[in-house]
Amino acid sequence: MADTDSVVSPTAIARRVVEAILAQKLAPGQRLGEQALADLFGVSRTMVREALMQLQARGFVEVQSKRGWFVVQPSAEEACDAFAARRIVESGILADAGRPLAQVIRTLRAHVRDEQQAIEGADAATRAFLLADFHVCLAEQMGHRLLTDVLRDLTARTTLAATLYQSRHEASESCAEHAAIVAALEDGDTARARTLMLAHIGNVERALEPEAAPDADVQRLRAALVPVAPRRGVG
Predict the structure, then answer these.
(1) Is the CB of residue 54 less than 8 Å from the CB of residue 14?
(2) Which residue from 27, 109, 206, 215 has the highest number of Cβ atoms inside 10 Å of its Cβ?
(3) What is the pTM of this model?
(4) CA distance 129 to 118
(5) How many CA atoms lie within 13 A of 79 on its CB side?
(6) Are strands 31-32 and 61-64 parallel, antiparallel or unpaired?
(7) Per-residue pLDDT tens digits for 95-119
(8) How are strands ordered across the β-sheet holding 68-71?
(9) Opening angle at CA 71, ends 171 and 116, nearest 5
(10) Helix %, strand %, coil % for the chain, to 5?
């Protein structure tokens, strides 16, 4: 059953779009039709437009004249900036952390177990979402509420980069690296946890293949040179 305006807000729609990006269910360059989204959520196009404008301000979508809204395709430089920002934020979160409470460790361990189950179950969307959400969960569990939303956006940006540039980093590798970070935190060794986090982010970034991304100019040229159907009757 479709949602209604009374229970769906532009912010809620924007959150669903970001979650779909984290799950790699929305790809870079994918079109987001206003009417299609309005029908999906059971709301007005005005509300959808407000949500898309929120996403545009956060750098997730762009509007193209006479074509509509599209998920952004981050450049290699933009991807590099996003990874650099994640290093600063995530290492900072761990740098000033004391020994985490038992509940924090239990939550993080449960998250890693969910990752493992998703990997074993070959659930691609859930697997992608959980692997990305680990970092958001970590910030939240460490009590950094203001940074949780910031890190969600940064992680979504790097997820778009991983999708666009065909990351070679295996899900099982990420899961194992997450488990090692949690183990270091459980031992109270936050310095090691920070080192492991920086290495993990670096591993994900190095696994990208920028040359695999479609060149926008080449795409436009290819589209422009599609053969034009000849007019009938022209000799």
Answers:
(1) yes
(2) 109
(3) 0.83
(4) 10
(5) 26
(6) unpaired
(7) 876 656 788 899 999 999 999 999 9
(8) 31-32, 68-71, 61-64
(9) 15
(10) 65, 5, 30
